[in-house]
Amino acid sequence: PIVVFSAIVGALIAFCFFGIYLGNRKSEIQSITGKPPTVELISKSGPKPSAPKKSQHKSHSHSHAADKHHHPLDVNTLKGHGDSVSGLCFSPDGRSLATACGDGVVRVFRLDDVSSKSFKFLRINLPGGHQPVAVSFSDDDSCIVVASQTLSGSSLFMYGEEKPKSSTGDAKLPLPQIKWEHHKVHDKKAILTLIGSKSTYGSGDGSTIVASCSEGTDIKLWHGRTGKELGNVDTNQLKNTMATVSPDGRFIAAAAFTADVKVWEVVYAKDGSVKEISKVMQLKGHKSAVTWLCFSRNSEQVITASKDGSIRIWNINVRYHLDEDPKTLKAFTIPLRDSSGNTSHYDRLSLSPDGKTLAATHGSTLQWLCPETGQVLDTAPNAHDGDITDVKWAPTSIPDGNFENRRVVVLATSGTDKKVKLWTAP
């Protein structure tokens, strides 16, 4: 009896010991994996017939989530940028799109089909230390002006390439070379905007003129092909926001620190060269700083957006030499609200070639408006995963391979999320 009793007591002690040990072991596994014991046991069991279904369901849900957030006007995304994309520009024929990226590279994409799954692009590496901030085509798609920033100041480069001698589509384009360059063009101040237009007004010779706007108060005008400085103006408004050139190369308009917009006229000599740049009018009416502006296609109207929460459309086709002031044709409240319900302001504007759609951005939000009424045509609240840095309409329609003989008007946006997106009009 004593032996049997001792054996039973020993077995009970051993059982309790191993029970405590296994309990501690299970707790250790649970604390490491962060899973309940039942899940841990299932994961260690044999084949799991439900696992493929679970994986398939997860992928299926992700697809539905992507479709849910995919905007119907979003037609494509140009990926491959290594950093934030700060600027973009379409070529005059609309078939090429240049982008300025913080990774030190300018990419020129060929848009033969807006719905293509992949796009061919030309890669332009800027000299060491230069970060491209803005781009503008000069004359045609073989010449491009790049604004860059370094610690010593801003620079301008014009890259040009020769057309291939062979007429076949398989001929490789030669790498672009620097045709001209200027350094410290605005002392140590950064370039905010770089806009080019063909000088077709009056006796202009049709060559491209490019305006570079600094973060200071100066704006300089350049000859796109030769790089010659054609003139400069001073806004005298403490700090510039942006500047642009009218499509016919006649006017330069700038938004700066104040609520007024100043407009200068580029006067051309009989030989087509720039004779002078003179201030001709001032757009007065906003109650707070103007954040962005753009010209109509015929260069006779200007659209402005202000921090006062309004948009104004101005008629600048006036006899300013007889002291006739530009007139406000229309004014409407910006139809965008912040989280508190207050009216927001637009960061950027771009008017479609036909003048029927105004693209406007604020942060990561993209809106399409009717410039006649101010009505919202459509909204993409999260057009990018970061702030939108630039927005431009293609000057002409682009083929859409999803439909035979179909061409669409394309809007391009760039963002801090390293992406460039292509959109169609509502």
Q: What this model shows, in words?
A:
The structure is a single chain. Strand 15 (240-245) and strand 16 (251-256) form a beta hairpin. It is built from three helices and 31 strands. The strands form eight sheets. The chain has a four-stranded antiparallel sheet with strand order 1-31-30-27, with no helix packed on it. The chain has a four-stranded antiparallel sheet with strand order 2-3-4-5, with no helix packed on it. A four-stranded antiparallel sheet has the order 6-7-8-9, with no helix packed on it. The chain has 426 residues and is mainly β.
Descriptive key words:
44% strand; mainly beta; 31 strands; four-stranded antiparallel beta sheet; globular; 14% helix; 426 residues
For the CA atoms, what is the radius of gyration?
A: 30 Å
Task: Decide which structural class fits the backbone.
Answer: mainly beta
Number of strands: 31
Q: How much strand?
A: 35-45%
Q: In terms of per-residue confidence, which ranges show pLDDT below 50 for 5 or more consecutive residues?
A: 21-68
Percentage of residues in helical conformation: 10-25%
Question: Strand count, sense and closure of the main sheet?
Answer: 4 strands, antiparallel
Shape, principal axes of CA atoms: globular
Strand order of the largest sheet: 1-31-30-27
Mean pLDDT: 85
Tally of helical runs: 3
Query: End-to-end distance, in Å?
Result: 95 Å
Task: Map the helices and strands.
Elements: H1 2-33, H2 37-44, H3 50-69, E1 74-78, E2 85-90, E3 96-101, E4 105-110, E5 121-125, E6 131-138, E7 140-150, E8 153-160, E9 177-183, E10 185-188, E11 191-198, E12 208-214, E13 218-223, E14 229-234, E15 240-245, E16 251-256, E17 261-268, E18 274-283, E19 290-295, E20 301-306, E21 310-315, E22 327-333, E23 348-351, E24 358-362, E25 365-369, E26 376-380, E27 388-393, E28 398-399, E29 407-408, E30 410-415, E31 420-424
Antiparallel strand pairs: 1-31, 2-3, 3-4, 4-5, 6-7, 7-8, 8-9, 11-12, 12-13, 13-14, 15-16, 16-17, 17-18, 19-20, 20-21, 21-22, 23-24, 24-25, 25-26, 27-30, 28-29, 30-31
